[in-house]
Amino acid sequence: MDFQFQQFIEYSVIIKPIYVSGWQSDRRSKKLIFLAIFSPKKQKMNELLSKPVNELTDEEWKQVQQLKNKKKPSIPFSKATCNDCVRSDGLALNIDYATIDVPSLHIPTSFPTPVASDFLCENLSRIKTVWVLDNEKACRIVIDAILTEVLLAEANDNLMGFCEVKNDWEGTGFGYTGDVDYMFGSSDTKSVDTMDSFLLVVEAKKEWPDSAIPQVLCEAGCLLKKRLAAGKETPVFAVLTNGLLFRFFAIDIDGIVYASTIRLLEIGQDGTYDTSTSLSEILRWFTWFMTSIKSVSLRASSEDLTDTMIADSLTHLRSCFGPKFPIHSNKQSDQTYVYPHVCISVWKTQKPQHNPRQKTEYKDSMKATNHFGTPILITF
To answer: This protein's superkingdom (predicted)?
Structure first.
């Protein structure tokens, strides 16, 4: 068969990772003949990866390492979503408790409530008087004052606060990048020398709670992964705040996130912070976190902790994790729970009289209204 063409037009298109070339015949004006060829670069890399390591030149070895160290897909903390928190090739957190308003993190009832200093109360009153707290930077003035109070009371030479700490981390197929607003931990050099010695992150976020919760959980999750990689199997802590609302979190080594209820900072009945019970409760949460850190971290503690002491502290700490009561009640009477943007009532269907001839289906149901007030019926 004669394949001689009187004329041809060559088309050349690069479609990563291959080259596609085509010729058009004047005899077959509507048809193209294409030849696909893998790029030389791709072919060469495949050859390098198939060669024994001892046969690679220095330059070839360098190329292979660059390929292996290629960055995985990642997302900044500020753009993280709930799906990014739970994805299996990333942090793989269990955030179920953090998405509902039923508390799953509790301070021991015997833990004392600190008294706010006169300086802090006066400082907060002055801030409220002269500052318009309508953005994140402005809200940090309040947060800075409270964190400074906590650090002055609980910090030591081995436990200090740091600002704008880089906290990137990569999983098997996905990574997270960005800085943490505040981080508490141990440092011999008063610098972020080893991330595995840090246990608490604090995120200041004016946008509450739209993108705030996934962000702070990803930040704390990355910190947890770094500690686990260093062989330090203790929970980490996180605080999310806009200077007015505060929510406290703990993430255990299995990736389960535990969360408190939201705490609101308010003035006292006399119009000052001196009688503010909410301020004392917020300080109590921070103080409990700091005390817990010092009880499980060798570097953060000013005492010589033994393995037995740390194990006892972890047991005591984990007794504060989890809801005090079942989230889904089996009681016959209606039980109401408030979820973000949805008010839900849960009830059990009554068991009818037994009839062997009739197949009875038992269901749990939920009736709800969304944030527009529209009724919703959910059956599962």
So the answer is: Eukaryota
